[in-house]
Amino acid sequence: MAWALSKTGGKLITIEIDEGRYKAALKNFKKAGVEEFIDARLADAHQLVRELKVPFDFVFSDADKEWYTQYFKEVEPKLAVGGCFTAHNVIDGFGGVKEFLDYVRSLPTYETTIDRSSSSGISVSYKKANATSPR
Hints:
Elements: H1 2-8, E1 12-16, H2 19-32, E2 38-42, H3 45-51, E3 56-61, H4 68-75, E4 79-88, H5 97-105, E5 110-115, E6 122-127
Parallel strand pairs: 1-2, 3-4
Antiparallel strand pairs: 4-6, 5-6
């Protein structure tokens, strides 16, 4: 993702609460030569997601499943029309995943599909212009 963003002028924000994984990620970003395109934050996403002010085109959530709905609610007003909110590990339905999928599927301004090309599944929720816009 960071390499693609280097071609488009975008920026990737990543949040990690575990200091060891955070430091390993920083090393990997540097080794890959993409560190200048990544804003890596050592923080608790429960708090930081709410504080982020920038608009988003794409969000990938692979965090605590019980908070997927809350993460979505915090990011949704900041997600650009045409943007996507994706969530990892959605096939099993454990830990709040069912509630998240039920919630996002109930929104008329979103179209949600499940990519089953991996064993755990990834939901892709596309933000439409409005409830009556053509696909």
